[in-house]
Amino acid sequence: MATCIRSAAWILPLLTILASQCTPNRKDKPRQYYYIRGRVFLWSFARIHESRAPGLGKDLESSIELWYKIQSHISIKLRWITRSEQPSFCINKKADIILRQAIRVSETQSVAKYFWSQLHLLETIKERILQIRADPARGPSAMDDEGFAGALDVDVIKDKVQKILTEFYIVEPSADFKLTQIGSIVERVKNRTATDVTDRLWSVLKYCCGYDDLKEVLTYIFKTASRSNLANIPSNSNHLAELIKSIAQRRLAIPILTGSEPLELLLEIGLEKLLKDFQIIFHESKICHLDLANVGKAPTAGAGGPNDSSTNSRASSMRKSMYEAVPVGTSTLLSGVGTDDGGAVRNSYFNAGEANLKIGKLTQVQLLLEHLLSIEAHLKLTSIYPQVAEEYFARPVISFEEVLARKTDQLEIPILNNKVIELVENSTPYIRRVAMTTRSKFRTVQSTFYQSTEPILPTTQFAQLKTGEGGEVKNAYWCLEYTKVANN
């Protein structure tokens, strides 16, 4: 037994292997115990703890944690504290619940994969803008256009643009779908017919094969606006919309785009279109009101939490029709729409810091959407969506490149819905952690028993811990036991 002076604590680690064919007993080596997996009892831990805390009485406090795997990438932790003299591994229905989930970044096969491609395209456009601005003498046309979504001939794109601007169109009603399923809503939004002119232009302009084609098509748009009675007037508040309206109203001559301006116009309408798609998904799914200003912003003190009745009321009344989901007058993603200090209409606007931040926030929205789709598919707990969104959006925003470098995205949050316990009631946990504490007036002794089907120590340093391809041992636990003794 370790002792301590002036509240100093000593940790006594002990690695033991829990084999599958043995009963609880001591072997030749001291403090080495063996248990049958699935037949580990807390009374055996209590006896060990009592032997390490002699004379401290029977006031035992046990903190019990059980980890269960729902899927290979989803696990649930149940935690509770008991003061019973005979604690048990039987699940406490009032246990605290932690959801842990990992998704592979940008390699998902979910229905939201389309939005990953849009994020990649927007990041590519942003990088091309930075290249042009960094070396203006080289000229935009000399830049490598590899990476664009180009697949259409410029004449085909011009024909589509002409129809968008000059022909009236009717939005056909979409096929019915299950409003309660996020996956169905994502599919509908992905295939929806956009109503605003610049949203429809984005769906065409992104297929330009390079800088020269894009500049040519944008000039064609301006010429069409100058000599035709437009059937469809842009309603968005971005620079391309303002230019089209000003030219159509004879308030502006046809602008000559230079440098990175064509790409800046394309980036702005692409960011706006993607945000609008996400907003519709979140509104229709009754997840939350999606405001990019709140993404990456920690909740302020005193704000209503996930249990706040006003928060739940707002969430329950969030559903709107597909085309009324996004508020009118939504501000542009890139600031500075309108006129410059001299009153002249600016062709475009770009700020590298703002662009990085907006793409990073949209990436965070996409990651949350992937997590929610996984929860919907495997847990079916629709009531926790607003809580998961609030917790996830409180994370700091990181850049698109940093997200890709991480390979996987981890979600670990507490959930309040105890229905998930029904999924694991008859399962064997893959991790157990029991901390037993006994206190006296002068001393506190805590014994911790940690068991895992996965190796606890690095297998590169401890070859005896190596397992099969799955990383787990079957019918056995790896176990780490240690005791902490401290003066009060």
Automatic annotation (TrEMBL):
Subcellular location: Chromosome, Centromere, Kinetochore
Keywords for this protein: Cell cycle, Cell division, Centromere, Chromosome, Kinetochore, Mitosis, Signal
InterPro entries assigned: Zwilch (IPR018630)
Main location per the UniProt record: nucleus
GO terms under cellular component: RZZ complex
Gene Ontology biological process terms in this record: cell division; mitotic spindle assembly checkpoint signaling; protein localization to kinetochore
Signal peptide range: 1-19
Subunit comment: Component of the RZZ complex.
Function: Essential component of the mitotic checkpoint, which prevents cells from prematurely exiting mitosis. Required for the assembly of the dynein-dynactin and MAD1-MAD2 complexes onto kinetochores. Its function related to the spindle assembly machinery is proposed to depend on its association in the mitotic RZZ complex.
Family: Belongs to the ZWILCH family.
Name used for this protein in its record: Protein zwilch
Organism listed in the record: Culex quinquefasciatus
